[in-house]
Amino acid sequence: MELELPDMHEKYPEVTLSINKVGVVSVKMPIGYVTLKNKPVIIVPVFDAFIDLPSKQKGIHSSRNYEVINGVLSRYVGKTYKLEDVCVAMSKELLEKHEYATRSEVRARGEAIFKQRTPKTKSLSYESFKIIAKAIAERRSNGSINTRRMIGIGLTGITACPCAREIVKKIAEQEMEKLDLTKDKIKRILERIPIATHMQRAYGSVIVEIPEYVELEATRLVQIIADSMSSSTFELLKRSDEAELVIHATSNPRFVEDCVRYMMCYFVKEFPDFPDNIHLVFKVRSMESIHQHDLIAERVASLGEIRKELS
């Protein structure tokens, strides 16, 4: 006869208060595939899965959260999938497994590697970006389940400071005036030679909340973020590539504020058919090279609000 084990999770808690979010975090799963420029790209996804807990239940059945992640993802093994769709499937199944819960949340993140050519020698370099996905499921009073999904990309680039560049340019102009050069010649020299400024790595991200009837190829956001920076980063740089990158970045100086504004502008241009009610988060963090602090710029808005401002 099999021993019947007690289920402590179903017991009445000593303190009868509800909890918004209980679950498992950092669950690593086997490799999957997402698409970048119509080609499969390998990712290793990591998941967090939560449900809410009513006041009359002591704890959640946490093993069910892992079972849901494992079970849903097994259906996608070897296939190219959208991380946000996997999160939606998991969030629904969490509510089916936890009949006492009314809300679930699944977050996923993964790092993808893609090929890129260096700016001058066109050497092959392998670069990375982060994919971020999230889904929220809520059980309605009639028993049906409503879901929301979010997808985003995080990418590292370079920012070159416009302020320092202008100061150095002014100093160079004053020094050339001492050499009795004409104003026209000084102007032509300054237009042709690179002007020094400080540069730093910057991390940009775009998070999009997508309605059920809208499909977004998240990797299209990679180019939006990259184009919004002063320059891209490269793992491999030969000497001529390094010089080309520095010249390009210092000729294209941008504050973090500029980067966020360009990301918004490029998103509007890239997705002209998207509805106004799509919600977005644009964020850039500059890891300052001449300060011990960092700088952050962020904008949270609907696509309609951004379009209205641009017009």
Any descriptors?
two-stranded antiparallel ribbon; 32% helix; alpha+beta; nine-stranded antiparallel β-sheet
Describe, in plain words, how this protein is organized in 3D:
The protein has 311 residues and is an alpha+beta fold. The chain has a single domain, classed as Urate Oxidase (Roll). 32% of the residues lie in helices and 34% in strands. The chain has 8 helices and 11 strands. It has helices at residues 62-74, 83-97, 162-177, 183-192, 220-228, 239-250, 256-270, 303-310, and strands spanning 19-28, 32-36, 39-43, 46-53, 103-117, 124-139, 145-160, 199-210, 231-232, 279-286, 295-302. The strands form 2 sheets. Strands 1, 4, 5, 6, 7, 8, 9, 10 and 11 form a 9-stranded antiparallel sheet that branches. Strands 2-3 form a two-stranded antiparallel sheet. α3 (162-177) runs antiparallel to α4 (183-192). The chain starts with 18 loop residues before the first strand and ends with a helix. The relative contact order is 0.11. The mean pLDDT is 89.
Question: Layout of SSEs?
Answer:
Elements: E1 19-28, E2 32-36, E3 39-43, E4 46-53, H1 62-74, H2 83-97, E5 103-117, E6 124-139, E7 145-160, H3 162-177, H4 183-192, E8 199-210, H5 220-228, E9 231-232, H6 239-250, H7 256-270, E10 279-286, E11 295-302, H8 303-310
Antiparallel strand pairs: 1-4, 2-3, 4-5, 5-6, 6-7, 7-8, 7-9, 8-10, 10-11
Helix pairs in contact: 1-2, 3-4, 5-7
Helices and strands: which structural class?
A: alpha+beta
Number of helices: 8
Strand runs, count: 11
CATH topology descriptor: Urate Oxidase
The SSE string, one letter per element, is EEEEHHEEEHHEHEHHEEH
Q: Mind telling me the CATH superfamily name?
A: Urate Oxidase
Mean pLDDT: 89
Instruction: Report low-confidence residues grouped into runs of 5 or more.
Output: none
Percentage of β-strand residues:
25-35%
Q: What is the helix fraction of residues, given as a range? A: 25-40%
